[in-house]
Amino acid sequence: MSDIRAELRYATSHEWVRLEDDGTAYVGISDHAQDAMGDLVYVELPEVGQALEVTDEAGVVESVKAASDIYAPVSGEIVAINEALEDTPELVNQDPYGDGWLFRIRLNDKAELEQLLSADDYRTQLDSED
Amino acid sequence: MGHRTPLYDQHVTAGARLVDFGGWDMPVHYGSLLDEHHAVRTDAGMFDVSHMTVVDVTGAGARDYLRHLLANDVDRAPVGKALYSAMLNAEGGVIDDLIVYRRDNDYRLVVNCGTREKDLAWLAKQSEGFAVQVAERPELAIVAVQGPRARERLGALLAPARAAAVSDLKVFGFAEDGDWLIARTGYTGEDGVEIILPGADAVALWQQLADAGVRPCGLGARDTLRLEAGMNLYGNDMDETITPLQAGMGWTVAFGDDRDFIGRAALEAQQQAGHEQFVGLILEGKGVLRAHQKVISAAGEGEITSGTFSPTLGLSIALARVPAGTEGKAEVEIRGKRLPVSIVRPPFVRHGKTVYQQ
Known about the structure:
heterodimer; A: alpha+beta; six-stranded antiparallel sheet; three-stranded antiparallel sheet; 3 helices; B: six-stranded mixed sheet; 9 helices
């Protein structure tokens, strides 16, 4: 049973979003996604300052076996990336909702969060994929 | 639901992530591919490879048949030795790669799972005119125990005759005891054995090995280990459109006499005309090389046939088919960017040590 955090919003493509008080949001991949990928060995992240639209390609996570695209779950400007992942991509496996975050984005429109899945909806999606 | 090996329940109990592999439900890993990989490089791991197809070739014409069928010459293997060979079509393309075990009066082949049906059809077709019987042995399982401590750990669990076989075998040698065939072969670049045995025995052995601390390893680690060892994977590194000469398997083709093996004329013509070469690549920066990425060098364009992250080296490696004369440095195109790679001679890793040469 994978860990799904109630306080987060989720994209159908398995990214999570956590809104901060300052109008930025952290983005990562879900516990289910990291588990399905297996041991991650390389993470490619967007550039700070890059502007992204919803579902734009925002990076790639690669396990030993496969590469998987990361899509922007919301639109906005990248304000930070998790530089620790360059040398320790396994943080995504170890702590997908914490130290394994991918990037931080300044949202264009907080209303876009409403388009994402709630934890319950995301659970329903995972159950239907099994 | 796919086919299941006799060890299926053991895999489920051990928490394996199962995937469809050529119609079989097989473990890709049991939690961490990287940990499994390192276990084989530093200690011992075990693999269920019972999905592979075992075929016995018997009869007075077995030797002549196999000398016609295979690009390598079974006469190179004395009784009690195994031999690696390609099986070619008339155009020199690789129908499959296989191991042949030379027994006292007959031969045993182990061929790939994904090619089983076409292999069996080809074996049957080519047997016409030879006094041979070709019989699949689906009741047999195969367990590979690999790693620097594999033989020691296995030997400690076996009855004296089998333990002696495990400790005394030479590389590529094999011994039989009852319905077990124990061979000092493998697909990891480490010491170890592969055991062909009845399914029920495989279940008991697997449990004993697990209890002794031998780590179950999935097909994921099998792939990273074989790639580090510079060993080809059928369907990736060669297929029916690629000859052994283009796939770094020239050493397995025995041209030594006038033996008339299938594909010989095509290979000789290709030797005359020249052909692509098979090389190793090391990615100089970060990223992961993958099959089908384009390789660009002064000599022209080639293609990665297998690529992965190398857990032992901590960087990405690949096998690639490139134009003759490609050497030194090249570039690989990954998601629209060109990244520098070094051309090296595989293998990358053997017996736990880095061994590739620029």
